């Protein structure tokens, strides 16, 4: 199949999922066209089956806001025609589903029918999409998609609760490519740069937005390090980072916390980690938690949104109510205190991650694509017959 994938190219779950999905589809012989405003961060390799088309938004002094949707929908029209693309898969409803719908309509005028699959990722529904200023356009573009998928049951339930949706929503969980997780973690010098032999390594990875509850990460770590020797690795960048650095100084733990910024070495960092913290206010899925588990790292998380579908309480880690930092810290200590317990949780984390192996999830997307393309062809035949 020839598929256009529209996504955000930045460090962030939806862009990562879209990129990994496209790369795996390409490996399986499909022709994949990534269409976005800059090369997705995890799209390192271009090959015969992987194309990247940049959306440029020309600046004009009249514009206070640059019309990205307009440029994106025009680019989609051009690329669909140039490469005979058969299907659009847009990740994150805002504004991708809206731009995709406009592209579909423009192409229809020229006699080209192309189906659109929209994948809902989380904040496009829960935080941003639900804002009254966006809601009518988000509702419209979800309802106009040919197929709608959501990354968890919780996100599906929220979408149906918050929006007037007339379409079926298919749950396809996020996935992980386990085969690529083999890191030479026993190179001792790397670990020793980060922590002393006796210190447990605790990690948090995110875009440091408010929803991640970064101060909770620091507070949980503070409680842990009072009981056992430990280091905290904070990976990522975003609006809450500075505040987090200040909090570490105030608590007198700055020497025990390393801020990395955005990194392309997530797997290596995780391979040295003993525990992952994700105390988010809400998380439709929690891809970072899955990435941690795929590197055998147990997870202490909140129990909000889709997290209970990914992290299993008492097995791959523990879940607590949002903000309950005391319980999160005491659960972390339960896991970290003894090597035998930690090793059991590590094995369980990996076992849990295996459920989300890309090999099991990718065929679900392929089946949806095939059906959407077939349905669209059928509709085209029917409408020709009517004429
Ligand atoms: O976490 C974010 O704010 C980024 C956002 C994104 O779109 O990149 O993440 C959402 O999509 C991820 C991939 O499906 C999910 O794993 C995250 O849980 C979800 N974030 C939230 O729901 C807050």
TrEMBL record:
Gene3D superfamilies: Glycogen Phosphorylase B. GO terms for biological process: bacillithiol biosynthetic process. Residues 11-179 form the Glycosyltransferase subfamily 4-like N-terminal domain. It comes from the Bacteria. One of its GO terms (molecular function) is glycosyltransferase activity. Residues 194-351 form the Glycosyl transferase family domain. Transmembrane segments: none annotated. This is N-acetyl-alpha-D-glucosaminyl L-malate synthase BshA. It comes from Flavobacterium luteum.
């Amino acid at each position: 199949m020839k598929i256009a994938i529209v996504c955000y190219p930045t460090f962030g779950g939806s862009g990562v999922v879209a990129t990994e999905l496209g790369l795996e589809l390409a490996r399986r012989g499909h022709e994949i066209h990534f269409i976005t405003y800059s090369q997705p961060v995890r799209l390192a390799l271009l090959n015969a089956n992987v194309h990247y088309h940049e959306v440029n938004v020309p600046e004009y002094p009249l514009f206070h806001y640059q019309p990205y949707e307009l440029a994106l929908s025009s680019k989609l029209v051009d690329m669909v025609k140039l490469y005979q693309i058969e299907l659009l898969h847009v990740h994150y409803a805002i504004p991708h589903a809206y731009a995709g719908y406009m592209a579909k309509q423009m192409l229809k005028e020229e006699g080209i029918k192309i189906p659109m699959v929209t994948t809902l990722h989380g904040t496009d529904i829960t935080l941003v999409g639900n804002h009254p200023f966006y809601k009518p356009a988000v509702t419209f573009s979800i309802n106009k998609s040919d197929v709608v998928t959501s990354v968890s049951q919780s996100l599906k339930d929220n979408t149906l609760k918050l929006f007037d949706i007339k379409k079926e929503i298919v749950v396809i969980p996020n996935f992980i490519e386990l085969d690529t997780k083999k890191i030479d973690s026993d190179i001792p010098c790397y670990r020793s740069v980060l922590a002393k032999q006796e210190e447990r390594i605790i990690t948090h990875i995110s875009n440091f937005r408010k929803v991640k509850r970064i101060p909770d990460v620091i507070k949980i770590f503070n409680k842990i390090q009072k009981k056992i020797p430990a280091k905290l690795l904070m990976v990522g960048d975003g609006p809450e980072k500075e505040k987090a650095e200040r909090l570490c100084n105030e608590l007198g733990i700055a020497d025990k916390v390393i801020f990395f910024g955005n990194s392309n070495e997530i797997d290596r960092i995780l391979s040295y980690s003993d525990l992952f913290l994700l105390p988010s206010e809400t998380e439709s899925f929690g891809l970072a938690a899955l990435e941690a588990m795929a590197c055998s790292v147990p997870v202490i998380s909140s129990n909000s949104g889709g997290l209970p579908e990914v992290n299993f309480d008492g097995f791959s880690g523990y879940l607590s109510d949002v903000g309950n930092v005391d319980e999160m810290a005491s659960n972390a200590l339960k896991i970290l205190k003894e090597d035998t317990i930690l090793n059991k949780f590590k094995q369980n984390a990996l076992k849990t991650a295996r459920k989300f192996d890309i090999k099991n999830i990718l065929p679900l997307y392929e089946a949806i694509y095939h059906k959407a393309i077939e349905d669209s062809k059928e509709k085209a035949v029917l409408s020709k017959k009517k004429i």
